[in-house]
Specification:
Distance between the termini of chain B: 36 Å
Oligomer: heterodimer
Radius of gyration of chain A: 21 Å
Distance between the termini of chain A: 45 Å
Radius of gyration of chain B: 19 Å
Strand order of the largest sheet of chain A: 5-4-3-6-7
CATH architecture of the largest domain in chain A: 2-Layer Sandwich
CATH topology of chain B: Aconitase, domain 4
Number of strands of chain B: 8
Structural class of chain B: alpha/beta
Helix content of chain A: 25-40%
Largest sheet of chain B: 4 strands, antiparallel
Number of helices of chain B: 8
Number of strands of chain A: 19
Number of domains of chain A: 3
Largest sheet of chain A: 5 strands, parallel
Number of helices of chain A: 16
Strand content of chain A: 15-25%
């Protein structure tokens, strides 16, 4: 019987079995940011612990970064405090850090891959649930809490429970106007927001095989929205060519040997899975969330459900009321006030290209505030070289600096009151975008672009 | 570390599935470098806005003040990995959570700070919630070793993975010490990884 990638990587990184029933797992790359690390560094100081594997640790700043005016000190004194605290901590413990004025700065899950830090076969941890993004490279990547950040800083290890593996095969060809974002939203819709509890999701099938790394990252990114802490894609030639030549990639003289090893850790053809699911790409349509969790979504042609149509009638009723929707209403045509393109889910160059294609030569609706926030300074510079910033600006979008921005309410970019936002981000939870009563509609970046132009949710297949 | 085998106290019923960590602690309160005072903002937006059919949030209901056990439905704590969420609940005074199911990261984060999340059947959760809503003064006793919740007229089974139960009983849920006591093995593991180049 063969092994899955998860089993191979897990075995290789196992230090020992712990009396708690957990595995002591060595972490090959620890990514650190300003939100979930200050208390962990304090614990190290209090206990006199060092960071023994500083060369396997990398820090940046993303969540609190203002995307318009980055001058220090920040106007927000609490954000300034967090920034200063991270700067002090990385200095004191000797950790590599890309700060605000560094051209490599960006959302941690965008810059890890971009810099070549993220590589196949690694275990990766970060105090952020979207760490699953890095699984796109065939790494096993965990989102962790602050106490675990402390553990990894102090010991380079995690005490963690073994995971089962569910293979999700996406087969066939995606129709025009249907993107990787729609694939993952469809998976979550089908398997539920807690369907992945206790599982790692292995994304496979010919549709995934043909995807670019950017698309694979979008899918792996939202694994956690389906309850799966880990999601991954087996490494192949697409992965290898993406990593080649990046700043932290293996040097040329060792690259081929590493690439051979990367291929060897892919799941064996005869590996056994705890569960196996098939999604037919050809049947998918552009998807929009109507509710307050990422599983509450429908196809653009469908109608918003009634409470009686689900297993949780109270949950549906509550979500409808929060979103200001009526059962049976079509989602197409719902008015939007804000359009947000960005985040670790969809803030990469290919996302901006797709959106730019839609808006080129057109203009956002008068009542819509539209912004594009590149996921990293690197993405911003690459987009500017292609003139995408000008495409967006002339279409009436604001072109901002890199950061997490309006994905979550931790920086100046927030919804106001009951604004409705067409968003390329990952969570439509109540209050997620910074206004307790703000309403988020998750969709692909191309769908956000289309909604910005129309001023309402619209079918991108008619524009793409 | 402190050993946890039994938790006893009054309870707060908190109805609803998929209650996410953004609701437990809105992101704006993550702008801090300590967990101090996190409890002041627990469920802040939900408490301010109210929820349909309820005038007052459970955390603001006078009869539930001083409770030490939280009763929840399914997939509690989904979403972000922010430990600020269990920290806010724990610092408010909750010592254990009883629910139908928990999101994985929240479950682990809670264990790390010594707040067990135990599961019970949907029927038992419904019975416990109704009982506490009728009689908020009801005292629940969770016996982690025996796997029981005793609430007087309602007595039911609760479950916790056996190894975690042992870890709470022995105080081994404090992981850092455990991870630090075999540094030579850690170095040996690192040395056999193809991607770790010896300095």
């Amino acid at each position: 019987m063969g092994q899955t990638l998860l089993e191979k990587v897990w075995d290789l990184h196992t230090v020992r079995q712990l009396p708690t029933g957990q595995t002591q797992l060595f972490i090959g790359l620890h990514l650190v940011h300003e939100v979930t690390s200050p208390q962990a560094f304090d614990a190290l100081r209090q206990n006199g612990w060092k960071v023994p594997f500083v060369e396997r640790t990398f820090a940046t700043v993303d969540h609190i970064v203002p995307t318009r005016e980055r001058k220090r000190p920040f106007l927000d004194v609490m954000a300034e405090d967090m920034m200063a605290s991270l700067e002090r901590n990385v200095r004191e413990f000797g950790i590599r850090f890309v700060g605000l004025d560094d051209k490599r700065q960006g959302i941690v899950h965008i810059i890890g891959p971009e810099l070549g830090l993220t590589q196949p076969g690694m275990t990766i941890a970060c105090g952020d649930s979207h760490t699953s993004t890095h699984g796109a490279f065939g790494s096993v990547a965990f989102g962790i809490g602050t106490s675990q950040v402390r553990d990894v800083l102090a010991s380079q290890c995690l005490a963690i429970e073994p995971l089962k593996v569910r293979r999700i095969r996406v087969t066939g060809t995606l129709p025009k106007g249907v993107y990787a974002k729609d694939v993952i939203l469809a998976i979550i819709q089908r398997l539920g927001v807690q369907g992945g509890n206790g599982y790692a999701y292995e994304y496979a099938g010919d549709a995934v095989d043909r995807m670019s790394m950017d698309e694979r990252m979008t899918i792996c990114n939202m694994s956690i929205e389906g309850g799966a802490r880990v999601g991954y894609v087996n490494p192949d030639d697409t992965t290898i060519e993406y990593v080649r030549g990046r700043p932290y990639a293996p040097p040329a003289d060792r690259f081929d040997a590493m690439a051979a090893w990367w291929k060897s850790i892919a799941s064996d053809a005869n590996a056994a899975y705890d569960d196996d699911v098939e999604i037919k790409a050809g049947e998918l349509t552009p998807i929009v969330t109507w509710g307050v969790n990422p599983g509450q979504s429908i196809g653009i042609d469908d109608k918003v459900p009634a409470p009686s149509q689900g297993s949780d009638p109270k949950g549906i009723a509550d979500a409808l009321s929060f979103m200001g929707l009526t059962a049976g209403q079509r989602i197409e045509g719902m008015k939007v006030d804000v359009a947000f393109i960005g985040s670790c889910t969809n803030g990469r160059l290919s996302d901006l290209r797709e959106a730019a294609q839609i808006v080129k030569g057109k203009h956002v609706a008068k009542h819509v505030k539209a912004l594009v926030v590149p996921g990293s300074t690197g993405v911003a510079m690459a987009a500017e070289r292609e003139g995408l910033d000008e495409v967006f600006r002339s279409a009436g979008f604001e072109w901002r600096g890199a950061g997490c921005s309006m994905c979550l309410g931790m920086n100046p970019d927030k919804l106001q009151g009951e604004q409705v936002c067409a968003s390329s981000s990952n969570r439509n939870f109540k209050g997620r975008q910074g206004s307790p009563t703000g309403r988020t509609l998750l969709m692909s970046p191309a769908m956000v672009a289309a909604a910005a132009l129309a001023g309402a949710v619209t079918d991108v297949r008619e524009l793409a | 570390m402190q050993r946890i085998t039994q938790i006893s106290g009054r309870a707060i019923p908190m109805r609803g599935n998929d209650i996410d960590t953004d609701r437990i602690i809105p992101a704006r309160y993550l702008r801090a470098i300590t967990f101090d005072g996190m409890e002041e903002h627990v469920f802040e937006d939900d408490r301010r806005l109210g929820s349909p059919g309820h005038n007052r949030h459970a955390f603001d209901t006078p009869a539930y003040q001083g409770a030490s056990i939280l009763l929840v439905n399914s997939n509690f704590g989904c979403g972000s990995s922010r430990e600020h969420a269990p920290q806010a609940i724990r610092r408010w005074g909750i010592e254990a959570i009883v629910g139908e199911s928990f999101a994985e990261i929240f479950f682990g984060n809670s264990a790390m700070i010594g707040m067990p999340c135990v599961t019970a059947s949907p029927e038992d959760i419904a019975a416990l919630m109704s009982l506490v809503e009728r009689q908020p003064s009801t005292v629940l006793t969770l016996d982690l070793q025996a796997g029981t919740c005793d609430a007087g007229s309602v007595r039911c089974a609760i479950s916790l993975p056996s190894k975690l139960r042992e870890a709470f009983a022995t105080g081994a849920w404090d992981t850092t010490g455990m991870l630090l006591d075999n540094y030579e093995e850690v170095k040996a593991t690192a040395a056999r990884l193809p991607y770790v180049v010896a300095p």
